[in-house]
């Protein structure tokens, strides 16, 4: 059974760097299984839809949402089967529930669609406030 669990601070001040870690169990993040080979960060601001942030794939390559690319970094620790999101220079507009998930599959197109991901973490609330 594949399981994902997010961890990180729930409250962060503006201009700081948000760091969240996703711990994966049940499958290695270095596995390519019928193109289920990427691990994403997705967020949902209050009252809005899902917003894909970026992914790291089974080779360690990364791909980011263009509007967030300058502030985003996703890395991994294969020894711990974890991947980590860093979002720099946060503002209150970064307040959201943050999820990690396996996907997207297939690649290409709109990555905000829920059906492109098969396993999700439970989500963690992140609030940016002074």
Quick rundown:
The protein is 0% helix and 45% strand. The chain is an all-beta fold and 130 residues long.
Topology:
Elements: E1 3-7, E2 11-12, E3 18-25, E4 38-44, E5 51-57, E6 62-64, E7 72-77, E8 82-87, E9 96-102, E10 119-120, E11 124-128
Parallel strand pairs: 2-11
Antiparallel strand pairs: 1-3, 3-8, 4-5, 4-9, 5-6, 7-8, 9-10, 9-11
Verbal overview:
With 130 residues, the chain is mainly beta. Helix content is 0%, strand content 45%. The chain is built from no helices and eleven strands. The strands form two sheets. Strands 2, 4, 5, 6, 9, 10 and 11 form a seven-stranded mixed sheet that branches. Strand 5 and strand 6 form a beta hairpin. It is globular, with a radius of gyration of 14 Å. The mean pLDDT is 96.
